[in-house]
Specification:
42% of the residues lie in helices and 9% in strands. The protein is of the alpha+beta class and 1106 residues long. A five-stranded mixed sheet has the order 8-10-9-12-11. Strands 17-16-13-18-19 form a five-stranded mixed sheet. The chain has a three-stranded antiparallel sheet with strand order 5-6-7, with no helix packed on it. A hairpin with a 4-residue loop joins strand 6 and strand 7.
Length: 1106
């Protein structure tokens, strides 16, 4: 009988399936064998494995399923079907229930109790009316429905139409004549005054648009409609005699929907009209225009309530601008809100603890069409939020000089300023916005653009940041005083307490004349500009000239931490979704909408700030420890040069050729040509010494290792050969020479290892490798097991062999390092300079040759390591880790810093202190031939490699002929660059770690301060509503404070929550830095080059632009 397939078995079983019984499939016992080798003994054990879980299967009656005759596949021939996802299983379950679910939905179209007497027992009162919005309302008569919904006036009544046989939707006011659905002034009961009348009103709620009736209370004379509507949580569409009102719920719901999903007011009202009557929505009133206007007022009132302006918060936060409606960052330094007592004593070298970091960026999607709009429609915020006062800003722009191009110097190829495509701004009077943010991604200010991103627009945005942060009198007190020699600089009262770090994608041009522009236009904010350190975001700087990397990259600026600056573009994801709506609005409405979204964005960051900081401080610590370990290793590898390097000035300088010189930049003037690299490398590899053949144990083992290397070389050539059937004649010649070499070596083996003669003879008699000597086993000690080495007495010889393999491993690492460096250098030069088929073909051939040799030496190392493991080395020995091509990676030193470098670590070939420590001897060139004897890792140091992902230096110039010493000097120059860049990465992540601790402390202090302020505001209010809201806000900030402290403690910083009265954060940071685990012995007796101002480049930027 033919074997049955799994599908056939399953089909036959399901054919006779039953839903009444559960059966289990029989299982066979499962076992596993384990072999343990201990010396000469081999122990085998059998283990019983646990049974698999029993599958459940339904079947009608027990049946014997016969194998299918039309299937010939074995059960294991077909893979088991993939298990379904939870989503698929859930959908299938729903599909099975579709008829039942549909029936339940249809059942709600009628009621079995229709026409029965109502529970009120009033004669002739039958059950005809039910509520569409109440969850469990029992169908009743209309009178009962009206009474029970006196305080639910916007619920829809569904009345049974006995003639047509279905429920018809009604507003409550239409159930009986001369009634109103909304009765004001009497807790839902109608006003009994004979002058009170029912007025037709449009009321918009979350369940639709109601054309209903409202009865105002006139017990005390002419009613104030606005007051009575607002007390009923109905917002009037107009102030004078309103006839339309919106429930607070519908305003709040749309507000949240608009902020989260960017749903437009038109679409929202359209959905409400559909909810009212999905068949004939055109017959429903359209209050879109009134709704848009009311929402602008609602946004403003919400902002005033949440900011505390309704409670008079300005009397408690006296340093901020009056009427301020901005959601401020809780982590940014503010001496009046969140800074620790004694912060003024923070030393200059720890100034990043009290640092303000700002970013700037433009967005040309948030534009506005030129339309015939109302000139009086201006922002309701009147310059008290993120946008400045529109009239003042327009006057400022109007008085600026026209058509004066901005200068970016060498980076004038950037399009942010003058080269914006004017076609895409056709028919637009506002072409975008510029936002100023902090590094915590809180928006600080925004201004409109007029064709391109002008410096003057950004100047006003920066000025507005200061204006919103401080009142005029506070700004005048904020100017710094003179700095005494040897002391920390004076701290600014009310201003950012240390230097401001400002990241901008065109900072190289913007910063040149920023002080002079502010001195002319904004003299009160000049001191803020003069104290700024300018940066370029780490992604944008890749598009600048290389000089900008060393002048404006935060990676090389002291105190910048990991301030990459690219967070400036994160809010654009939200604003770009909003842009299709705002570009059609009047400018006042547009600004109000953008302001509302800015506040929502900032508040979302505030509510999640503690969790964000927790993740960031954990990440910063982890990366600092990783970078510290790498830098510590490099200090050990380059111990003979660290003292000299550490005394070098880290500041950039301008060379005579207008190229920036920096310790982080490799010298470009003496780059060797590709041909020079190629031929020098081949000569170096060929010149490596080969020991002469002598009848001694060392020479015997050395020859065995050389034969093994020769075998691997031939195997590599066979693998690379394009014609597998007919090998090149050169390979046959190599095989003949290898055969002769092996035969001669076997003669020596007969004298030194006579005990293995039988094993060698058996291999020769078999003739298995007669035509392929590259696969022949030499039978040296590493080819035997421990038991066999004991049997044949090869233990001592095996120890000698292990030492030879150690030396071979070191030699292989030297060659791999040289080859990797040269291959990458040649590839970059080929990419930059080779043009035409002939040049590219020649270069590709040379690169391919070196790659093959590199891979062969990696195999040599792996073979030496495997032999050492066979001879007793632990596979986890850190001295000889596994070596792959990925381990040869090292970040490029010829190129400027690439995106993501701070999170990447060099491969183990360059950073580990094990085998990689033995790749070059102290005081000798790596070009010298390595010895086959073992070299101590503590005596040797590494060299340089280039990352394969990046191209050759863009400003590369053809090199002249170089001597061997000059070539080695060029290659070793990369070691210095690697050391300094690794030091910078370690320092930036340490600063980031410390900066995030300070952020956490300031966030906790902000929440504590705001909780206290709201608590005090609750005591001065005279009405219960403001008191209750202030108490709620105080409790909210108190809960935020509790959660922030909890996460700060979880991260391990509970000691920083309540500082000692005599200490500040800087004291704890000093103690942390002084721990022994962070000390580097090679730097203990040397000092870093210090200057009066190590953050300012020794370059005149104005001369560069000129």
């Amino acid at each position: 009988m033919a074997p049955q397939s799994f599908k056939g078995f399953k089909a036959a079983l399901e054919k006779h399936s039953n839903r009444d019984q559960v059966v289990e499939r029989d299982q066979v016992a499962r076992t596993a064998e384990q072999t343990i080798m201990s010396g000469p003994e081999t122990i085998k054990t059998t283990l019983t494995l646990p049974q698999l879980p029993q599958p459940l299967r339904i079947q009608e009656t027990p049946v014997n399923v016969a194998p299918s005759s039309d299937t010939t596949d074995a059960i294991n021939d077909e893979p088991l079907p993939k298990s379904k996802t939870q989503t698929s299983e859930t959908l299938e379950e729903f599909q099975e229930k579709l008829p039942t679910l549909l029936q339940h939905i249809l059942d709600h179209e009628a009621s079995p109790n229709v026409g029965q007497p109502c529970a009120c027992q009033v004669p002739n009162a039958n059950r005809t009316t039910r509520c569409y919005d109440c969850q469990f309302y029992e169908i009743s008569c209309s009178d009962c429905f009206i009474r029970s919904h006196a305080n639910l006036p916007t619920h829809w009544a569904e009345v049974w139409d006995s003639d047509r046989g279905f429920f018809v939707r009604h507003d409550i006011a239409t159930l009986k004549p001369d009634i109103s659905s909304i009765n004001l002034g009497h807790a839902g009961l109608p006003c009994l005054s004979r002058y009170a009348t029912n007025l037709v009103f449009h009321v918009i709620d979350t369940n639709g648009i109601h054309t209903t009736k409202i009865r105002f209370c006139i017990c005390k004379g002419n009613p104030n409609r606005v007051d009575q509507l607002m007390r009923a949580r109905l917002f009037p569409a107009t102030i004078n005699q309103p006839t339309t009102a919106f429930s607070f719920q519908v305003l709040h719901q749309f507000h949240i929907h608009h902020l989260e999903s960017k749903e437009s007011a038109y679409d929202f009202i359209g959905s409400l009209r559909r909810l009212t009557d999905n068949a004939f929505p055109q017959h429903i009133a359209d209050p879109s225009s009134q709704f848009r206007m009311v929402m602008r007022i609602w946004r403003l009132l919400t902002a005033m309530k949440r900011s505390g302006q309704a409670h008079g918060i300005d009397s408690y936060l006296t340093h901020r601008r009056e009427g301020n409606l901005i959601v401020h960052c809780p982590a940014c330094p503010d001496p009046h809100i969140n800074m620790e007592p004694g912060w003024e004593r923070t030393p200059d070298d720890l100034g990043h603890l009290q640092q303000t970091q700002l970013t700037a960026d433009g967005n040309h999607h948030s534009n506005k069409y030129r339309k015939n709009t109302d000139p009086d429609d201006i922002s309701l915020y009147e310059g008290k939020a993120y946008f400045p006062n529109d009239l003042e800003y327009r006057e400022y722009v109007k008085n600026l000089p026209k058509n004066i191009p901005e200068k970016l110097g060498d980076c004038d190829h950037l399009n942010a300023l003058n080269k914006q495509d004017r076609k895409k701004f056709k028919n637009m009077d506002i072409t975008g916005i510029v936002c100023i943010q902090c590094s915590h991604i809180f928006i600080k200010s925004t201004v409109d653009l007029q064709l391109g991103e002008k410096f003057t627009n950004t100047d006003y945005a920066i000025s507005h940041v200061v204006m919103c942060r401080l009142r005029p009198e506070a700004r005048s007190r904020a100017k710094p005083g003179p700095k005494k020699p040897g002391q920390a600089g004076p701290k600014r009262l009310g201003s950012p307490p240390s230097e401001i770090y400002r990241s901008y994608d065109i900072a190289c041009g913007f910063s040149v004349n920023a002080a002079s522009r502010f001195e002319e236009k904004f003299p009160e904010e000049l001191d803020f500009i003069e104290g700024m350190t300018w940066l370029i975001p780490l992604v944008h700087v890749q598009n600048h000239k290389d000089n900008c990397t060393y002048l404006f990259s935060s990676a090389y600026i002291k105190g910048a931490g990991h301030f990459h600056g690219e967070t400036a573009e994160m809010p654009w994801v939200e604003l770009n979704q909003l842009a299709p709506q705002t570009r059609q609005m009047n400018n006042g409405h547009r600004q109000d909408t953008i302001i509302d979204h800015h506040s929502h964005w900032n508040w979302a960051k505030t509510s999640n700030m503690a969790a964000t900081l927790y993740n960031e401080v954990e990440r910063a610590k982890e990366l600092f420890l990783e970078k510290h370990a790498t830098f510590k290793t490099l200090c050990a590898l380059y111990a003979d040069k660290v003292t000299m390097w550490n005394q070098m000035d880290r500041r950039p300088r301008m060379g005579d050729d207008r190229e920036v010189q920096s310790v982080y930049r490799q010298n470009e003037k003496k780059v060797p040509s590709q041909s020079r690299i190629y031929h020098s490398l081949l000569a170096e590899l060929k010149s490596m010494p080969k020991p002469t053949l002598q009848i001694t144990v060392p020479s015997f083992l050395n020859e065995a290792l050389l034969i093994s290397a020769n075998q691997r070389e031939i195997l590599a050539r066979i693998k690379a050969s394009k014609t597998k059937s007919e090998l090149p004649a050169s390979l046959e010649d190599l095989r003949d020479r290898l055969r002769n070499r092996i035969d001669n070596w076997h003669k020596l083996q007969k004298d030194i290892m006579p005990q293995v003669g039988d094993v060698v003879a058996q291999q020769a008699i078999s003739g298995k490798f007669a035509d392929s000597p590259e696969r022949e086993v030499l039978y040296i000690p590493s080819d035997f097991s421990v038991a066999q080495r004991i049997k044949y007495g090869l233990i001592e010889l095996g120890e000698h062999e292990r030492r030879f393999h150690e030396g071979a491993a070191y030699d292989s690492v030297v060659k791999v390092r040289i080859l990797r460096k040269s291959v990458d250098a040649m590839r970059r030069r080929k990419k930059k300079q080779d043009r035409g088929q002939q040049n590219n073909t020649r270069s590709s051939g040379q690169i391919h040759d070196l790659e093959a040799i590199r891979d062969l030496h990696i195999d040599d190392y792996s073979a030496a390591r495997s032999a050492m493991i066979s001879l007793g080395l632990s596979p986890n020995d850190p001295t000889f880790p596994p070596l792959t091509l990925d381990d040869t990676f090292r970040k490029p030193t010829h190129l400027k810093r690439a995106v993501g470098d701070s999170r990447m670590t060099d491969g183990r070939l360059w950073t580990m202190t094990g085998v990689t420590g033995g790749t070059r001897r102290v005081g000798s060139s790596s070009a010298a031939g390595p010895s086959t004897s073992r070299v101590s890792p503590s005596q040797v140091f590494g060299t340089q490699i280039i990352q394969k992902k990046h191209g050759w230096i863009w400003r590369f110039k053809p090199g002249k002929k170089m001597s061997d010493e000059e070539l080695q000097e060029w290659m070793d120059d990369g070691d210095r660059v690697q050391w300094f860049r690794t030091e910078a990465e370690m320092q930036r992540w340490r600063e980031e770690w410390e900066f995030k601790q300070a952020d956490f402390m300031r966030t906790i202090a902000t929440f504590q301060r705001m909780s206290s302020v709201w608590g005090e505001l609750s005591t001065i209010s005279s009405t219960p509503g403001p008191v209750a809201y202030a108490n709620k806000q105080s409790a909210m900030y108190q809960e935020m404070e509790r959660r922030a402290k909890e996460l700060f403690s979880k991260a391990g910083y509970s000691h920083l929550i309540d500082l000692d009265d005599r200490k500040i954060l800087a004291d704890y940071i000093r103690e942390e830095r002084a721990k022994e685990e962070y000390l580097i012995p090679e730097l203990s007796n040397t000092k870093v080059s210090t200057h009066a101002d190590t953050q300012k480049p020794m370059i005149d930027l104005k001369s560069m632009i000129a």
